[in-house]
Structure formats: structure tokens, C-alpha cells
Amino acid sequence: MLPQINARTARMKPSLGVLEQMVLLALLRLGDGAYGVPIREAIEERTGRAITPGSIYTALSRLEARGLVASRFGEPTPERGGKRKKLYTIEPGGLELLQSSFRELMAMAGGLEPRLEER
């Protein structure tokens, strides 16, 4: 049996959680081939929020499973005992969803700057 589509579900579209948005923004800022440590550092530096490595990798895994980011392994490095870093890149669908999410947030926040600053 197929699920029923109503007006509400027809309008629903994929969305991003706050951490997923921050990870995608960090990837956008860092460029292709970023890996977990600089992604976490970029988020912490710009937001002041402490983020655990595990939460970054969980978010990256979810984003990759959804086809919003892609990963590949870099070359082994002596500093890492011959281990290779997993490097991430935003896929076009991830960029589109990030742009949409950003526009929605800006539309909701538009005109509220004075009220946000008064508290």
C-alpha cells in the first residue's frame, strides 16, 4: 500500500539539521578535500561551540549517505603512521540544499535584527 500524499507532505522537502548546515558551510569555506579536524576547527573558531570529533564524523556520514557530500581517501602520511585521511567534498545536491536552507533562514530572520539585538 502506497503512503497517501496530502497538501502538507507534497510541500515537504529535504532539510538539514543545524550541525549538518555548519559542516556543509565549513566544507564550503575549506574547499574540496577537507577532512574532519579542520572541519571541526572551522566550526569551533567561527561559532565558539565545542564540537566532538564523533559528532562531526556522524554528521559527515549522514550527509554522505544522503548523497550530499562525497569522500575519498588521501595519500598515506608518515605523521599519521601511514594512515590515509578521509577527504570530503560537497556534492551539487548538498550545495543546493544548503543554499535553500540559507535562503529560508534569511527569509525568516529578515526584519528581526533589531529585536534579536535588543535582548
Summarize the model shown.
By secondary structure, the chain is an alpha+beta fold. It has 6 helices and 2 strands, in the order ααααββαα.
Widest sheet: strand ordering = 1-2
- Report the CATH architecture: Orthogonal Bundle
CATH class: Mainly Alpha
The computed structural class is alpha+beta
What average pLDDT do the residues reach? 89
- Taken from the alpha-carbon principal axes, the silhouette is globular
The biggest beta sheet is recorded as: 2 strands, antiparallel
Number of helices: 6
Question: How does this model look, in words?
Answer:
The chain has 119 residues and is α+β, with helices and mostly antiparallel strands. It has one domain: Winged helix-like DNA-binding domain superfamily/Winged helix DNA-binding domain (Arc Repressor Mutant, subunit A, Orthogonal Bundle), CATH 1.10.10. It is built from six helices and two strands, in the order ααααββαα. A two-stranded antiparallel sheet has the order 1-2. α2 crosses α5. The chain is globular. The mean pLDDT is 89.
